[in-house]
Structure formats: structure tokens, C-alpha cells
Amino acid sequence: MRIKNHPILTFTQEEEIAFTFEGKSVKGNKGDTIASALSALGIMTLGHSIKQNRPRGFYCAIGNCASCNMVVNGVPNVRTCITLLEENMDVWRQMDKGVYK
Amino acid sequence: MKNVNCLIIGAGISGVSIAYNLASKGMKNIHVVDKSYFTSGATGRCGAGVRQQWNTETNCLLAKKSIDFFEHAKEILQYPGNLEFKQEGYLILATSQQEHEQFIKNVDLQNSLDIPSSLLSKEQALAIVPHLNPDSFVSATFCPTDGHLNPFKMTEAYMLAAKRLGVTFSFFEEVKKINRDNHKIVSVETTKELYIVDVVVNAAGGYSAEVGALAGIDIPVYSENHEILATEPVERIQGPMVMSFSKNIYCQQVPHGAFLMGRTTPGQPHNHDVESTWQFLDEMAKTAIHILPLLGELRVVRQWGGSYNMSPDRQPIISATEDLEGFYIACGFSGHGFMFAPMTGLLLSEIILKENPTLPIAGLSLERFKHITDFEVEQSVV
Q: Can you tell me the ipTM of this complex?
């Protein structure tokens, strides 16, 4: 969801940024974090919990809680709520603790 | 006022192991007191490693027999939980020709005591831990039966087993006074109770010198802060503990996925400080990234400190006292009390009950520091 009309504030239409989520081409706006772009697309599940494999989503929004950790351009445990979206980013839900090679 | 046969001061891994061993040999009316919460001292702050690669015979034997126990601890102690015991080895790096030659001697000694360690070339070490920086070492030693054990679970396992045998525990109770009648121990006063005792065991870890002083016994140990950090948990990268004495690091990935690593901060004051410092974080990170560059990708999530209780020869004191009947000591583990705990409990229970000791105990006595001045010092310590 994005706020388009507001009684006091104005939100200018930003240019779009193309990226891929789980292999599908999608679009966010310039100025989005990865998590805010996904939220605007209606994607609520960003990863799964370590022990019980339960869905995890947007939570603290300030990079503290690790709930939004995702695999971005092959790098695991990226805090998507504080990482700005870039053109052609390859974003995947993280299903494990993060694989490092 | 309470009568007890045996009062054990300190409910860390040493105290609970001693309590369990005494009770399993039939001693009744054993009580354990601790001045703070369960595993509040060095046990709950330790690096959770268990190894057999030492350079003195005493430490090798203590470690070997302790690992033998850990392999069956869950069944012996009938612990319902998971001790998180993993045996994926310790890989100890030699970083100079001199250290390499010392390690040849160490492995000879270890092999003579049935410890299955071996000397590895750089290529063999890299096959075991592929993310090692090949330029950071010259050779290594590896013992596949060394490993990791959860200190909280292990201590709980001993405590629950001891409780089933009738041992009682009290926490947040501090020993204030130890009364003696000449050369015999009489009673112990705590913040809550007066205990009339036959036997007192000083297993007070970082505070064992102070507890000794309460009884008028001089124990030549001191405490110093050693820090550790933990990273976020990640999928499995590293099986063995990687360690280097010359580079001053130990680093392992625990079963939950976090990396634990520690080092000795040189020039630490002798006191009970257990604070964390940014200087440790800085130095630890530099060393870890030099030896294991991949770890630079991980975030540090917390750090803490704990007391090493250092003895003059870096080997434990598991001993009776010549001057004071009924007063026994288990301290001075110099950072390795957790991994020796099964033998600490067994040997001290044998000493107290005047049984034949499983291992030679002369090298563990308090008196060794009075009679010998050029004792063999354990060098394999971080």
C-alpha cells in the first residue's frame, strides 16, 4: 500500500526501479528500501524463522530485529528494511540461517 | 544451624561434578552453596570447547579421561536434554617453524597417552577447514575426538543427577567465615546459615583464593578477565575448533550456528573484572579475519567476559591441604575447568574418601608449589 493522497503532505510520483523477487520481474520506486518495495507489492512473508520455520515479515523497520533478513544478490542475512532498492537486484526469501561460501 | 557431612562452595561445573561423584560413591548429606545464580561464574562464561591436545602429561590425562566420560555423560547422568556434544576435533595451527617443532613433541606425548592427535600439513589442514587463510600458518595438529559441549546443559546434567542422589543446593548464599579448631575444619558461616561440617570443598572458581584465605589457607592463584564474542547464527561452515597459541585465538562454530571466539588480552590486571571492552572486539576481529577471512562477513551480536583462575603452572589444583584436615581444593584451572570437570569430581572424591586415585595426583597437589620451584608449565593455553 502506498499513500497517494494526503490532506497535508504531498507524495510525488517517483521513477520506477525494476528488480526480481524469487525470480519474477517486479517494480519498486526510487527511494524504497527492499522491504518497503515488497510491502507495496503486497508481499508479507520475507523469510522463515530458524527453529520452527514460521513465516517472518516486516517488523522493526530499523535494522534491529532480523525479521526481514533476505538473500540479496546471493548475499544472505541482508537487512532489507534498511537497504535501499537498486536496479536489477535479485531478492529471495531466506529459508535458513544463511549460507556463506 | 545445620549439620552437613560435606559443604561444597561453588555450584559451577567443578562443584557439581564433585557433589555428584561423592554422592554416587555413597556419601550422604552433601550440600552445595553458591553466592550467585546457577552458572553465573566461569562455567557459564566459558568457550565451551573440550580438547586433549596439551603439552604436559597431567593435562593430557585429565582431558583424555574427561572426554571418555563426556562420550557417555548423557546416559550415565540420565539427562533428558541435549548436551550438544559434538566431536569434530580441534585444529591447532603452528605459525612458525619453532611452534611446528614443539607440536611434533606434543603429538608424540599425546599419542603415548592414547590421544589420537596427528600432525597435519598445510594442505591436510585446508582439507578439514577450507576457509583458512593458507598464508596464516605453516602446519597444524588435529585431534578428531576433541570438540564442543554446552556448559549450561552439562552443569545442569550433573546437578540433576546429584539431586537424585540426595545432594541439596542453595543459591544466592555467600560464605562469610570458615571456622577452624587448630588444624581441623569446624564450621562455615554463610549469609543465611551456620553449617557444622566434616568436609569443606573449595570449588569457588574465580574466588577460590578468597575462600582459601577465609580458612587461613594460602592458594597461589589469581583471577583475570578473558573475553569472548559471539556472532549471529549461520548455516554450518566449520566443523572443528580452530586455535592458535601464537596468534592468540580460539574460534569455533557451535551447533546452533553462532561462532564463538576468544583471546587473551595481554597485561590484564589480577582481579574479578568480567566487563567487555571495545579493544577486545577490535583485536579479536583482526585476528579472526586474518586466519578465517570468511568470518568477516558475519555480524557480532554480543560479547562477555569471565574469570580464568590462574595457577603458577597452568595446571589445576585438585588437592587436600596439609595444614587443615577436612579442607579440600579444586581450583586454578587456568581457563580449562569445564573440560576437566569429570576428572576433577572423580579425583577429588577419591582423595576425600581416601581411595586409590584413578590418576597420579602428586602433580595436582597444593603442596607442589611449596616444594618445587621449576615445575613444568603448560604452554598450550589461550
A: 0.87
